[in-house]
Amino acid sequence: MKILRYTALVSCLSICMPVLAENQYLQQQLEPILIGESHSIERQQIHSPEMTVATYKANNFERVWDNAKYAKQALNLIAQAELEGLSPNDYHFDTLMALINEIDKRGADAVKAQFDVLMTDAVMTYAKHLIRGKVNPKQLAATWNYEQFDVSPDAAAASLLKHVKSKSLDKGLENLKPVLPHYKRLKDALVFYRELDATGELPDFALQNKVLKPGESDPAVPLLRQKLKRLKYFEGSNSDATDYNDELVAAVKRFQNAHQVADDGVIGNATLKLLNKDYSEYVDDILVNLERIRWVDNTLTERFLVVNIAGYLLYLFEDNKLKWQTNVVVGRNYTKTPIFKGQMSYIVMNPTWTVPRSISGGIIKKMKENPNYLNEKDFVVVDSRRNPVDSESIDWPNASRKNFPYWFVQQPSENNSLGQIKFMFPNKYSIYLHDTPAKSLFQQDQRAFSHGCVRVDDPFTLAEKILETSDNWSRSEIDDAIAAKETKKVSLSKPLDVLLMYWTVAGNDEGLQFYTDVYNRDGALLKALTTPLANNTI
How many of the other CB atoms lie within 10 Å of CB of 517? Predict the structure, then answer.
C-alpha cells in the first residue's frame, strides 16, 4: 500500500513539477516529506514538514531561496533567535551556513536544493516557536488548558512566500513576537546577564562575621561594592573602603527588594546566597520565563487578569499594559495552585463557604476540642440536600472525615474564610479568587499558604476595576452591597479572562523582579527548552 502511495505521489510530482535539472534535485529532497516519511538533510531533521511542503506546493515546486543575497539576510534573522532565548541551531543554523558557503564556492544545484528545503523548514519552525513557544506546556503541567495558537500550513506558506518576495521577512518575524512589555524587558535583561556571564564571575562574597549590618565594616565590602555595581544596583565608584555606608546600604536594599527578601539592608545568609548567584543562573531564569510568555501571548484578549503564582501577585492588563496589581496568597507546595486559563463570569458579595470534604476533618477536630466552635465561626451543618442539621444531634466524639455524612457551611460574616467577596471563573479544579480574614499573611514575603485558591489582598479595588468598566458599578455601590451582609451574585456583562501563570522573573517600570521557584517548575522547562530540537520529546 505504501509503495502504491509513493508511486502515485512520484507520478504526480513528475506531472506537476517542471522537468528541469535544478528542480530534480529539489524533487529528490521533497519526495520523502511529501509521502510522510521522516526526512533529514545533512543529518538535520525536517521539523515542520507540513509547512515546508505547503510552501513548495504554493511556489509551484520552485526554489524559494534562489536570491542568494537575500537568503544570507534571512540567515542573519535565524541567528537572532538567540536574542529571543531560542537556539539558532534548532533551525539548522550551522548546517545552513556550511551549505551556503559551499554554494558560494561550487554553486552545485544539489547543494542549493538542500539549502532551500532546510532554510524553509528553519524559518517555518522558528516562526512557529515565536508564536506559541518551543516546548509543549501540556507535557509539563497536566492542568494546562490554554489553547495553543493554531498555525495553518497554507497560510504560513503564503506568508513566507510574500515576505521573501518583498524582502520583508524581518518584519514578518517581528510581528510574531509577543507584544507584552514584559517580554521586551526580559529580552533586554537576557542580553545584560549574558554579557556579564561572558566577562566571568567575581569571587564568592563571604563575611568575616555571619551578618553585616548598616554602619559596620568588613574586609569583603569592596567586593560587595563591585558585585552590586556590575548588577547595576550601585552607581558609586569602586574603592577599597571597608565601611558599609548609607550609599551601599541603599544599593543592597534595592537588590533585596528585587529578589523578594526583607529589604532591611542587613546582609545575612539569604542575601549572601543571592549575591553569589552565578550570572548563568540569571540567564537560565530568563530563558524559561521568555518561553512562558510565548505560550500565551497570542491568546490574550484586550483586558485580562494574570495571577503570577510564583510572584504572589495579581495583575490587571488592559491593551497589553499593566494597569494595576495587588498581592495574593496561593497554594502550598503540597496543595499547588494549578496553572490554567478561565473566564470570570460573576462575583459574589458576602459569600457563604461550603467546606471541601478534603479539609472537613479539621472542623471536626476543632469541634471535639471546643463544642462551641461552629457558633463562634458562623458555621452551620447541612445534609446532602442542604437541609439544616442540628449540630447537637451529632456524635462528635466518634465523628471523623470518613464517616461524617454532612457538610459544613460558613455563613456570610467577617469570620468567613472567603472574606466578603469572591470572584468566580468556573473550572474543574474549584479554584477562585477571594477575600480573606487572614490579612496578616499578605505582609510575608513568601505567600504559599492556601489550599489552592487565590486570596486577594485588595479584593474591593479589584471588584471596582472589574465592575466599573462594563457594569457601571461605583465603589460606593460595592461598599453598600458588602455592608448589607446579604449574599449577592453579580454577573459580568463582559466575562474576563483569568490566566493562572507561573513567572519566576517578571519586569515592571522599576526593573526586574526575581521570585523563588516555589513549586520547582523551572528545572524541567529549562531542560526541555535547551535540549536540541531533534532530541526533544516535548
Answer: 14
In angstroms, the CA 118 to CA 52 distance is 9
For residue 86, which of 286, 280, 277, 278 has the smallest C-alpha distance?
A: 286
CB 365 within 8 A of CB 401: no
CB 353 within 8 A of CB 435: no
Alpha carbons 271 and 65: distance in angstroms, whole number: 53
| Banded model confidence at residue 535, pLDDT cuts 50, 70, 90 | low
CA–CA separation, 39 vs 37, rounded Å?
6
Three-state SS at 504: coil
- Can you give the pLDDT at residue 483? 93
What does the pLDDT read at residue 3?
Answer: 40
What does the pLDDT look like over 323-372, one tens digit per residue?
999 999 999 998 999 999 999 999 999 999 999 888 899 999 999 999 99
**Predicted confidence (pLDDT) per residue in 166-210, tens digit:** 999 999 999 999 988 889 999 999 999 999 999 999 999 999 998
Residue 124 near residue 160 (C-beta atoms within 8 A): yes
**359: closest CA among 389, 339, 379, 387?**
379
Please check whether residue 448 is in contact with residue 455, taking contact to mean a CB–CB distance below 8 angstroms. Answer: no
Spatial separation of the C-alpha atoms in residues 101 and 95, rounded to whole Å: 10
Cβ pair 422, 348 in contact under 8 A:
yes
Q: Give every strand in the sheet of 353-354, ordered side by side.
A: 353-354, 407-410, 379-382, 388-389
Task: Count other Cβ atoms within 10 Å, centred on residue 455.
Answer: 25
Strands 321-331 and 448-450: parallel
Identity at 153, one-letter amino acid code: P
Q: Which of 412, 433, 376 is nearest to 486 (CA)?
A: 412
State the cell numbers at 437.
480574614
> How many other CB atoms sit within 10 Å of the CB of residue 319?
8
| The one-letter amino acid at 275 | L
CB atoms under 10 Å from CB of 335, counted, come to 15
Could you give the CA distance from residue 164 to residue 311 in angstroms, rounded to a whole number?
42
Give CA–CA dist 78/88, Å, rounded.
6
- Nearest CA-CA partner of 307 in 330, 285, 336, 334: 330
The whole-angstrom separation of Cα 538 and Cα 523 is 14
d(CA 512, CA 259): 9
pLDDT at 298 > cutoff 70: yes
